[in-house]
Design brief:
The structure holds 2 protein chains of 2 kinds. Chain A is an alpha+beta fold. Chain A is built from 9 helices and 9 strands. Chain B is of the alpha/beta class. Chain B has 21 helices and 27 strands. In chain B, helix 4 packs antiparallel against helix 7, helix 4 runs parallel beside helix 10 and helix 14 crosses helix 16. The radius of gyration of chain B is 26 Å and the shape is globular. The two termini of chain B are about 45 Å apart. The interface between A and B is medium-sized, with 34 and 33 residues.
Chain lengths: ~270, ~800
């Protein structure tokens, strides 16, 4: 795909090993702390996941997953969700003004001064990640930045830096992918055989390994191995011209995406 | 801990019992997972709740709260019956071979009581006369032993007989643990009873907070002795402390029955003078025979030039206790009857964190004054305006002193592994907040000025106390630390270790076990507690140049027991110390816990010199399977929690016969099998909140994660009571009731005990009426009953009820 030749060989990624996560959520707090995001006024949630979903003020959060097995046993796992930072991001290809950019080192970042607020990115993202500041006068689209600012200074993401158990590991994506496969091979029968993010939607910067099937952890599985831009680029490049004058359509879109954000449970 | 956090990486099997490190000690899991990844270690988790730790374990066993003793005794029985114990270790390094008074009776032969029981009579509490719990002595006053372990009166035979009552079926019947899982767990854990495999028992408040908490810990120690897991890298009895500096504050004598360094507090009746104190409190053998040197040096540190051998180092100036109980619950009981008139709540929040909190808050109303020293206005500081109180009718004068947070001040924090680590100040204190040291200093100087002005009844201990920490606004920390470390009086130089302490007034030392923590490291040129060198030549994670581990920078205590009597490590891959026969000297990766070198000749001591005393702190020199210092018996025996749904299935003796109970507003208890309170309750924590939550509920990022108080119940109970997830529920006990949210989760399940099913309810204890994230306090409902050895309250097993609000 012609648009992604700029990616560095040693671009960065994060390996999430779900078997090592203790659900302490220090990643969640570190993210808010580093990015100066406000705390949300929350209320009790039965499964302890809180805030219940990612939003413009919560870019990452740990989902608590309790799986009751047929034999009466239970499994309890903790899954950190945030932007996957696709290798070939749909949000970027959907954005006709290029407010989303895939950096050569891996992060998918957003330029608020360019954004026109069409929110195509939100529709385009297969993971439902970008969130809109619905209640602000000058709203922006918000999501995890992969701490591109820290990475520029040679630091890992804030969330990774605070993980006490090594469930999150920051490094060169291709090396992490190798390590993930080694970990799977080294413990036969322990892990699921796939590395989530290796191929999903053309691959993502964030990679996951898990002992519990990914679909039970709230991941979209059986998805295309082709990136979304590879399907849509030829169409979406025309969107600036089509969009002009489509005020009514955009209003409808506003209502749709707002509603979608409200009903979204998993991210 | 006998060992330390990093050492977890050396364990082969973990048994996490009464602890939830994945939730409460997250960094523990870094090392547990390290051991799993690199050694293939297995993890067993024993808990009433399927906790986060259970979620990451290989085996989970659901246990009825308050039944750790049968669980652990049963495992010991399994080890012995199946010959899985470490025979050579047991024979050489424990008192298994010691002969006990033939009159000694086990509870199995004596209606659940040991011999020597004296029932309550009038005002006199029940007690034990320990006459029959003593070792048999020969004509030379030496303890008689039978190394063949065959004598019917030897500890080993008595232990075997005692344990025989705790067979697998009985244990499962009492504890509610699944039989197959139990046998599996016994097999797995007892697989460490061999030289080259080591098991680690991790516990916390789930083990200690019972009316038999002391005996629960004894079980842990005994099992580890049986399997040869003490003194070994990767083994140990590892108490995970409930707060980052609990170890440090206990070392400094936070508890009423101690003075610094675990020396007994002087008692007005028992210790009329220094000679009597020494006579009564100095064992003839073991390292505690040095006690007079430690206490004399402490007095010298306190009273400086005034303390001389001629005047008994001013021993008479030390405050003495009167023989009464002054533990937490006793203080509040006395507050309630108006005997305690003033109260310092200094970095503690008993209105949320203590048992029977409803009565405790009511008792505070009787105070004439209260000084609350904290970072925020806690529930305790605000007791006079709590919901339901009438501030106008409360006469207590409350002073609030804003204290610095941990990052606004300097000093050491001592972690569970006994590492005293210096922390530097990160930011200047906010607002008017002051360091605890500043507050203590000002307070003392003000009291001293008052004594100087007004005289008072007994001014000398105050006016003549050595108190010279500089003249600046902030006391000089280096001077305080030097005093704690100890110094030679003549030149004021820091002592390198407590071995230098004397009883002649030539040395001063505030807390002997910290001897050397402030001495300068010769290579790094910094005080030992400020060291940050992470080299680890042994590869065992000992990090000898990182901070300072008391005592004498020893990382793993009792490490002589890691070798056989001849000084060969049981497991060469974990060499802490080793006798090099060719070179005739000890190889020491860790600081040896024995005299490796003769103090006078400086020649190496051959292994036979220390082979009989690997446990130097015990007068016997060996580990105690039989411990006659415990108040309710030399072996642990199962007794029910004070509040329980059932009669003791093992004997006629329902509870720990010496469990402490309280009066007045602290006396309310549910009877056995109470129909009003049919469910078993246990308190617990969540990672997002710290202790009483005063700080964390004030931190929006944390309140966001865990905003409200909840009660954890099983789906079965929820269905029976028509409770849906998130419903408001009323939880009640004999002490009171409150409303919170229902957390309906399969992590909670009933236990089957003796053929009947009992529901368990989990209550986190972090909430109170202050902050923007307030909630009900679990401790409003907890009972005020305690362990006779420690007076720790029974937070972890009591009775409650729950209904939809």
């Amino acid at each position: 795909m012609a648009g992604y030749t700029h990616l560095n060989e040693d671009r960065k990624g994060v390996l999430v090993d779900i078997t090592k996560c203790i659900g302490c959520r220090s990643c969640q707090v570190a993210c808010k702390n580093w990015n100066n995001l406000p705390a949300e006024k929350t209320s009790f949630t039965n499964d302890w996941t809180n805030p219940p979903k990612t939003s413009a003020t919560t870019w990452t959060r740990v989902a608590f997953r309790l799986i009751e097995e047929n034999n009466g046993g239970i499994k309890w796992r903790f899954v950190k969700n945030q932007c996957f930072h696709c290798e070939e991001p749909a949000c970027e290809s959907a954005c006709f003004v290029h407010a989303f950019i895939k950096l050569a080192d891996g992060p998918v970042v957003y330029k608020p001064n360019i954004c026109v607020g069409c929110r195509y990115c939100m529709l385009a993202c297969p993971f439902g990640v970008p969130s809109y500041e619905w209640d602000k006068a000058f709203p922006e689209v918000k999501k995890c930045t992969f701490c591109a600012d820290r990475q520029k200074e040679g630091l890992g993401p804030a969330c990774v830096s605070t993980c006490p158990t090594g469930a999150l590991k920051f490094g060169v994506r291709k090396e992490l992918l190798e390590e993930a496969k080694q970990r799977i091979a080294a413990s036969p029968g322990k892990y699921q055989p796939t590395v989530y993010g290796e191929k999903e939607y053309g691959g993502t910067s964030w990679l996951y390994i898990s002992d519990v099937p990914f679909e039970q952890m709230g991941f979209k599985t059986n998805v295309s191995e082709r990136s979304i831009p590879s399907y849509t680029w030829s169409v979406l490049k025309w969107t600036p011209y089509i969009a002009v004058g489509w005020t009514a359509a955009l209003t409808a879109l506003y209502l749709y995406t707002k509603r979608r954000a409200e009903v979204e449970e998993d991210h | 801990m006998t060992n330390h956090w990093v050492d977890y990486k050396n364990s082969d099997v973990f048994m996490i019992i009464g602890a939830n490190p994945a939730e409460n000690h997250p960094i523990a899991f870094k090392w547990i997972l390290d051991a799993r990844e690199n050694r293939g270690a297995k993890i067993i988790c024993v808990d009433p709740r399927f906790s986060k730790s259970a979620a990451l374990s290989d085996m989970y066993l659901r246990i009825r709260p308050g039944t750790d003793i049968p669980f652990l005794l049963g495992m010991m029985n399994y080890a012995i019956q199946n010959n899985l114990y470490f025979h050579d270790y047991v024979v050489n390094y424990t008192n298994a071979s010691y002969l006990i008074d033939p009159e000694f009776k086990l509870p199995g032969d004596n209606d659940g009581l040991f011999s020597g029981f004296v029932p309550k009579e009038g005002d006199k509490a029940a007690k034990y006369e320990a006459k029959t719990w003593q070792y048999q002595k020969d004509a030379d006053d030496k303890t008689k032993t039978d190394p063949t372990l065959q004598d019917p009166n030897c500890v080993w035979q008595l232990l075997k007989k005692h344990l025989a009552r705790y067979d697998v079926d009985t244990v499962c019947k009492v504890t509610g643990v699944n039989k197959e899982a139990y046998v599996e767990a016994c097999k797995l854990y007892c697989s460490t009873g061999v030289p080259n495999k080591v098991g680690n028992i991790i516990y916390a408040m789930g083990v200690t907070q019972h009316t038999h908490g002391g005996q629960n810990v004894r079980c842990v120690a005994m099992l580890q002795l049986l399997l040869g897991n003490i003194g070994m890298a990767g083994g140990g009895v590892n108490a995970q402390r409930g707060e980052s500096n609990v170890q440090g504050s206990t070392d400094m004598a936070m508890l009423f029955h101690l003075i610094p360094g675990y020396n007994p507090v002087p008692n007005a009746t028992l210790h009329k003078d220094w000679a009597m104190y020494k006579e009564k409190e100095t064992p003839k053998a073991g390292y505690w025979s040095n006690r007079p040197k430690f206490v004399a040096s402490m007095l010298k540190a306190f009273y400086g030039e005034h303390a001389t051998p001629e005047n008994d180092f001013c021993f008479d100036w030390l405050p003495k206790v009167d023989g009464r109980d002054h533990s937490h619950m006793a203080i509040f009981e006395e507050m309630e009857i108006g005997r305690i008139k003033g109260f310092f709540a200094w970095g503690q929040n008993p209105a949320v964190g203590g048992p029977g909190a409803i009565a405790a808050k009511k008792a505070m109303e009787r105070l004439e004054w209260m000084v609350a020293v904290d970072m925020v206005e806690t529930e305790t500081a605000a007791f006079w305006k709590r919901p339901g109180a009438d501030p106008k009718s409360i006469k207590t004068e409350v002073f609030f002193l804003p204290a610095c947070g941990p990052y606004e001040k300097e000093g050491t924090v001592t972690n569970s592994g006994r590492w005293a680590q210096y922390r530097w100040k990160a930011i200047e204190p906010l607002g008017d907040s002051k360091s605890d040291l500043w507050i203590a200093n000002k307070l003392f100087l003000a009291v001293k000025a008052l004594y100087a002005k007004e005289g008072g009844k007994f001014p000398d201990p105050i006016l003549k106390m050595k108190w010279d920490y500089g003249h600046g606004e902030e006391p000089e920390l280096d001077k305080v630390m030097l005093e704690i470390n100890g110094y030679t009086v003549a030149d004021g130089q820091a002592i390198a270790s407590f071995a230098a302490l004397q009883e002649d007034g030539s040395t001063a030392c505030g807390c002997w076990i910290y001897g050397g923590y402030f001495a300068t490291d010769k290579d790094l040129k910094v005080p030992n507690c400020k060291r940050r060198d992470n080299t680890d030549k042994s590869g065992l994670g000992l990090y000898p140049k990182w901070a300072f581990s008391w005592p004498v920078n020893r990382r793993i205590v009792y490490n002589r027991a890691s070798c056989d009597p001849a000084g060969n490590p049981w497991d060469p891959s974990r060499t802490l110390v080793k006798w090099d026969a060719a070179a005739s000297k000890w190889i020491t990766n860790d600081v040896p816990d024995f005299a490796a070198v003769d103090a006078k000749t400086k020649e190496p001591n051959p292994p036979e010199k220390s082979a009989k005393t690997p446990f130097i702190m015990n007068a016997e020199g060996v580990g105690k399977l039989f411990a006659n210092g415990m108040k309710e018996g030399p072996f642990p025996e199962h007794y029910e929690p004070i509040e329980t749904p059932i009669q003791n299935p093992l004997s006629k003796q329902q509870n720990n016969p010496l469990a402490t109970k309280r009066r007045g507003g602290f006396s309310f208890l549910a009877p056995v099998g109470s129909p009003d309170f049919p469910y078993i309750a246990t308190t617990h924590r969540v990672v997002e909140h710290y202790q009483s939550g005063a700080l964390t509920r004030n931190t929006p990022y944390l309140a966001e994660l865990m905003p409200e108080m909840f009660a954890m119940i099983s789906p079965v109970l929820a269905q029976k009571l028509g409770i849906n997830p998130g419903d408001a529920v009323v939880v009640s006990s004999a002490r009171g009731k409150f409303t919170c949210k229902a957390c309906v989760s399969p992590v909670m399940q009933p236990v089957n005990v003796n053929g009947a099913s009992y529901e368990i309810i989990g209550l986190p204890w972090h909430w109170g009426y202050q902050t923007d994230a307030p909630g009900a306090s679990a401790n409003d409902l907890t009972p005020c009953v305690g362990d006779p050895n420690t007076n720790i309250p029974e937070y972890k097993a009591w009775l409650c009820n729950i209904r939809k609000a």
